[in-house]
Amino acid sequence: MLEWILRGLRGGRVTTRYPACDEQPPARFRGRVDVLDDGQADPALEEVCPTAAILARDGRVRLDRGRCILCGACVQAAPDRFAFRPSYQTASPRREGLWVGAGQEADVWPAIRTLRDHAGALRNSVSVRHVDAGSDGSEEWEIHALTNPYYDVQRLGITFTPSPRHADILLVTGAVTAPMRRPMQLAFEVMPGPKAVIAAGTEACSGALTAGGEDVLGGVDRVLPVDVYIPGSPPSPIALLHGILLAMGRLGEERAA
Amino acid sequence: MTLEPLPTGRRELPVSLPGAPEDAPPGELRVRIAPRELAPAAKALHEVHARLVTMFLARSPEPSLVWVFALRGRLVVLRCPWEEGQEPVPSLGDAWPAARWAERELAERLAGLARPGAFTRPDPDRATRQVEGLDVFTLPYGPVRSGVFEAIQFVIETGGEDIPRLQTRPFFKHRGLERRMRDMTPERAVYVAERIAGIASVAWATAFSQAVEQALGVEAPPRAQRWRAVLAETERIANHLDVIAKEAETASLHVGQARFLIHKENLLRLQAALTGSRFARGALVPGGIRQECAIALDALLAALESFQRELRRDRKLFLGTASMTDRLIGTGQLDRETIEDYGAVGPLARGSGVAVDARHERPYGDYRRLGLQIVTHEQGDAMARIHVRFGEIAESVRILRQAIDQLRRRDGELRLPLPERTSGAGFGWTEAPQGELLAWVEIDDGRVANVHFAAPDLRNWALFEHAFPKDVLTDFAFIEHSFGLTPAGADR
Fold it and tell me: What DSSP string runs through A220-253?
């Protein structure tokens, strides 16, 4: 056992300093899609997207990150309009906040303030309960990664709890399937208040590619009140952490969006 | 080690089958049979130790029931013209335990999904009891379980320690993704394919792409095949490390868990540097790959070297820690007969001495040129499966080196355009980290018309209830992790 301890110590510190310092993703990392130019476009542009996340009407182009699976079809078809940005800042406390145009990100600050009041009691330490409502399995890997030495979320007072009765935050992955609807609802009902629900992943935000499948109800907000949406297919560990910190009300105005 | 291409045709088969042979691509034998010929054909195949892969309903060239067997480096495909509403075809379930779940799923899907509580639409609150006795109780474990796990349910009947009976209930996460792919172009449907089992995105996207390429008569350029192999082997290492880290976690070997999770995270970051996605999503497309991977080959090689050096020490420590290995040795024993009866695949089968590996049996893509050594262990317990995974990690690193070497030597095209508005149907397969994955794709006028995936996860979950011959409740998590399966792949 001593050998293990020495082995662990020899590796040195690998843990990120996020959120105190920014974490730099690799240059080509597909964190989110930004709209570079939202001027008048051919409505045929909407057809490019496999999940109907692009709206090109009324003389503007809008992108719904809550549906975007980061496939890059739009970046390839219209590189002057869309571009990948290596960023982890994707979460939003409002579904509408995931709709973006050029230049400006949606103003989600009022919603964050509301959430902060509501989540005030959660601020210092939270217990998170994860429920898989029909994910593809990769979201579980990314959530599990939060406990590895690179991210080590326990240093921020975030712990994962086996029982929903201890939980402050319900972290739901995947579009909700019919058999998972009730187990997920039950887990939410037995949680003590104040509590928050996080939809983790594009599938949990809107259903994305799985929407319209047999037995798929769609995004988590069809069943539960969602406080924070974390798009991404799957969202990376830092993006998840950003969303959890949002729900805890721990991010300042300048870092939240 | 590469296999010589086998000649096709009925004469060379060690078995004589009833029915009429049909045109088939090299490496496949397709036979059209009548319903009454199924039983004798299956019996003949059983005698020569063919392995049942899957059964499904095909629409091309005409609506038919299809059974796929793997036999000595070839696929044997029995096709029986059949339409919904016709008289049912006899079941193979008695002779082939491997057919039971496949038949059940197909029958329920054909009858419609309306019935909650069915096998394919489970009701978490309803469980049937079989073991009677004093102090025997039923423990429904799941679909929401302690820890960060995917949704699946196990109904455990126990007297407190031993597990006389266990039922595995998948399909809580059935999203109907095969059906969802219909009417999409193959270039778009591959996005769905890589989201069926997210932790094996590359394997699923490769199987789908190769089936489309087979159906449309194109072949991905060699450089694209090579990159596919690089991404697939990286994914395999990450999956095996995940299993090992979870075993360490279950044994409360915290430093060990941390070390293997660090390696796994490094691998995912390598995928992100290569493709922009930590799961290599959006990299593959039918006809090749979408773009050249971004990382310099020297940097990739250096990352591999340091990974291999670090892992060697952790592996030695892991295998030398008695509190760890004691929990694995003799746990979850599966004998060779059960493995063969159920047609199990992947590290699970290789841990019981059955050398099935799609990369070797029917080499595809770059594996026709790369050498491959199959890692097997005879003991059939959780320890053997972990040994297999460690061995395969080393083997994957070796394959990666070969592939990188060849990528360095030669440049080439990355993607061929698919012929437009064409029709066709074909099989594609890969060895996913969980085992052999087979895809059947029908293309009609340039759009996907019908898809079927034979997931390694579903086939291997069927064995889970047999893995508790003398094990108790506290061994449960060790056995589950040693299987290393993902419910998302099984449920589709």
Answer: GGGTS--SEEE--SSPPHHHHHHHHHHHHT-S-H
